[in-house]
Amino acid sequence: xxxxVLEGIFEGIVEYAGTDPHTTQAGWGxxxxxxxxxxxxxxxxxxxxxxxxxxxxxxxxxxxxGTEDADRLLTTGITAYRTGAPAPALQSFAEAAAKAxxxxxxxxxxxxxxxxxxxxxxxREYLREALRRSHTPEEARVAEAWLARLEAFDTPTLxxxxxxxxxxxxxxASNPRLTLREARWLGDAVHAAAGRAGIDSWLLASVxxxxxxxNHESVSWAGAVGLGQLMPGTAQAVGVxxxxxxxxxxxxxxxxxxxxxxxxxxxxxxxxxxxxAPAVRRYGGVPPYAETQxxxxxxxxxxxxxxxxx
Length: 310
Prior knowledge:
The protein is mainly α and 310 residues long. The chain has two domains: 112 residues, Alpha Horseshoe (Serine Threonine Protein Phosphatase 5, Tetratricopeptide repeat), CATH 1.25.40; 168 residues, Lysozyme (Orthogonal Bundle). The protein contains 15 helices and two strands. The protein has a two-stranded antiparallel sheet with strand order 1-2. Helix 3 packs antiparallel against helix 4. It is globular and about 60 Å long. The chain starts with a helix and ends with a helix. 51% of the residues are buried.
């Protein structure tokens, strides 16, 4: 059973992002608007919260499910989730959580499945319940990661002024280590990069908010770099240096545009940016991964907040 869970539905990862000590940190100032200061940030946790998780989640959690019924329901839920049916999976996980009231794992899975179907408040409640129950450090890490992701829906309502100013305000509110000068630089850079790629400035800003909270030093465990969290191979294909803040933003803009040109739909373009174009092609739409379902909705939520009249 443990191997089954490990090989199960979670094709993603619990992703920790912070400054990679082996990465050369890029400074500001390669965009036309200048500035040569360096953001000095402590390690920050950015979680993709994809549960491929861990052997401990799969093995010890199932072993402690408490009853055969809960174990059966958990297995049924995992099977449903694997086949792209998060709603039935959520029902099974919720029943398992009720039958094993002291076990964190069913509540944790229920929280992830609820996120996959867009039930954000239910997701929060299940994840908090998982933390209240007896849990392993790995289970706590995953629950906290998802709760952090759901904070995207608490984005400050800034209202539309003009793109560069609005984006600068969002950057400054999102990353307390930014100076006003750096935030203004980011607003100008995102607006200019979007213009070069022919996409909406607010949409690009929303992607960067979700990807990195405007932290240009963010590096994921998998190697995704910078403001737009570009993988090195992707950055090379786009023709940018991902360690350079301006080139990273420009690369993210062009990547979004490429995906839009293929799928002719911005929702699918966002899904491709997160999960990869092959996954979107394979499923004929937004893949049924909890992380991707969350990602698309979160970006569009932030976008709506930015476009809301002041």
